[in-house]
Each structure stands twice: as structure tokens, then as C-alpha cells.
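Audit log entry. Action: structure prediction of a protein-small molecule complex. Ligand: adenosine-5'-diphosphate. The ligand was supplied as SMILES and no pocket hint was given, so placement is left entirely to the predictor. Protonation state taken as written. Sequence taken verbatim from the request; no trimming, no tag removal. Recorded inputs:
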Amino acid sequence: MRIEGLVIQDFRNYAWAAVEFARPVTALVGRNGQGKTNLLEALYVASTLQSFRSARTEDVVRRGAEGFFVRARLGGPAGERTATVQGGAGGLTATLDGRCLRGSGELRSLVPAVVFSPEDLILAGSGSEPRRRYLDRLAALTQRASHADDLRRARRVTEQRNRLLARRATDALEVWDQQLAVTYARIAARRQQAAAAVAARLHDTYARLGGPGVVGCAYRPAFGGEPEPDPGAREEQILKALARRRSQEIRAAMSLVVPQRDEVVLDLDGRPVPQQASRGEARLLALALRGVELELTRGAAGEPPLLLLDDVLSELDGIRVGRVLDFIQGGDQVVLTALETAALGELGAGATVYRVEDGWLGPDVGRPKVDAPRSL
Ligand SMILES: Nc1ncnc2c1ncn2[C@@H]1O[C@H](COP(=O)(O)OP(=O)(O)O)[C@@H](O)[C@H]1O
Ligand SMILES: [Mg+2]
């Protein structure tokens, strides 16, 4: 479905704002630091119950406020629906047509959002954490609830093991190892599958963007080697790795064979990307990873995606901008940001353009002297 209207309150630098998305393309223009990315973030929260900038959703609460509120009006051939998300230090609650939602699954499949942002450069950096999260997003496209549950379970087991390791209470580790092996085996299988789906598409997508060289992507679980295809054999493989690295874990006083230490390796011409790629190549690679995410999201969801393009036009030269636009298909909803209306290029022609100024948003003619009356 399309997000046709959005109301936000106490969200980042917005005390209150209401936006209509009447056309397929909406552009937010304004100087830096005014709230353009914040608005994309609100759209993303409405679709995924997560921020794409902070791990903790409460970071989006406007400074000094208790909690944020987002309401999205969704439209599509099947009619209208209303989603709300509110949250703060106490957690997050979401509703769809007034009914409380347990997870993000239903919203994500109604409005599958994909963000392209300059911060995506981190996907091509030396730390694996952003790439693990990227793979987990893809894994969750098809097995959302179970993957999120397993990741939570793995984190809990890791905390328990770390506590025991810190106290050198190693006799008690065994029961946790069993639990870890079962959960980890499932996580590894889904990550492996997601990495294979990325590997099958990444090079072509990168090349289409004009990236030079041959890129690859591989999943390297912390238990070593390739995950065994059979679930039982995979659990055995993990238990063996735990036994093999037991003394190392005791010395380090922390868990080493856990999903949080899996690596996702990108290589360019056979060498690790952080060493090999120039900044420009890394940027194209990050863009290509999002392009692959978009393609896989399109395939998994029955709904056209919501594309959030943050400063993408100003990041790349003209030719490559043209290729980013190739990612967009008819039926997609696009919301993009730019410093200037002129920078919108061909996307500007059919777009609704809003100006963003210090937590205010309105028609692209400037801010009125007095704020319009507010109502929710
Ligand atoms: N939780 C918050 N409360 C209030 N203001 C915030 C919060 N988080 C970020 N901001 C403000 O939002 C502004 C940046 O908005 P952003 O959307 O990133 O700008 P841009 O228009 O450049 O994309 C900054 O002024 C920052 O101080
Ligand atoms: Mg920004």
C-alpha cells in the first residue's frame, strides 16, 4: 500500500507535522540539519517500527518530550487503513486500524520500505555488524517472526554464557551450549540463504551502476567453515566448534562462537573490500547492496515498495544518478530528499515538492509567519 498521509508528533526536531503524499514521488528540499532525513525516518518507523539511524527507537523522541507519535494513512486498491506507532523510554506500541500489533510483520508486508542513504557506506566498511543486520533484514523478508525470535534467543543465551564465563562457572555451560546450537543452527541457515541470494545478484547490480571490478559476498559463521545443509549436522558442527574453542572462551571470559560474531565478507577482485575498494567503489557497492535489498523485497512482498532516497542525488555524479533511477519501477512510492529543487532533475517533474525548515514542512514557497492551527 502507499502511505498517503503522515502525521508526526514529538519526532526528532518536529513538534508536529502533517504531510500528504498525493503523488508517487514526493521530494523534501531544504538546507542541511532542517529535518529532511528525520521525516524519512518517520516513514521508515511507520513501516518497520524501527529507525534506520539508531538501534534504539526512543532516540527519535524529540528532546524534552516524553514520547513520539506517528500516524500513517495507507491507501491501495483494497481501501484505506490507518497505522499508528508511538513510543518512548517505556517501549513501543503500534496499531493497525485500531488493533494492537505484536510485531512489525504485518506493517512491513503492507508497506515494504527500503532506504538508500549516505550512511549506507558503512555496509562496505570494516565492521561486519551493519552487514549482519543487512542479512538479517533479508532473512526476515521470508521468515520474519522466527528469525527475530531466534536472534533474541541467541542474545539471551550469549548473556547467560558470558556471565558464567566471567565467573569461570564452566560446568554450567553445557545446557546453554545445547540451546545455543539449536538456535544458532537456524540463524546460520537463514543467513547463509540470504547471503547466497545477495551473492547471486550483487555483482550484476554493482556493474549496472558502473562499478569496476568483480564483487562477491560470503557468509562466514563464527563456528567456522560452511554451514552443514542438514539441521542436525549443523547443530553438531556448532557443538564441535564450541568444544574446540572452550579454553579460548574461558581465557577471553566471553562467548566467541555466537551469531553476533558471524562475519559477512565483501570482496572486490578477490580481496577484502575495506582494503581494496576506493571510496567511490565502496559507495557504489553500498548502493548496489540496497539495490539487491530492493529487488529481494520486491520479490518477497506482494506490495510495491516505498523507496526512501536520502541525499542520493547529491552523492553521485550525473550518470550514476541515472542508474539509481533505474531501480525505481512504476507503482513504487518514492520519497527523496535534496538540498535544492534544481537537484531533483527528472524526478522533480512529477513530484510534490515540500520545503523543510527547522522542523517545519510546507509547500515549496517558504514558511508562513504564523503556524497554521494544529489538530491531530
Ligand atoms: N531527538 C531529537 N530531538 C530534537 N531534535 C533532534 C533530535 N534528533 C535530531 N534532532 C535534530 O534534527 C536535526 C537534523 O535533522 P535531519 O533530518 O538529519 O536534517 P537534514 O535536513 O539535513 O536531513 C538537527 O538539528 C538535530 O539536532
Ligand atoms: Mg539528511
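Audit: result stored. The chain is about 40% helix and 25% strand. The chain has a mean pLDDT of 91.
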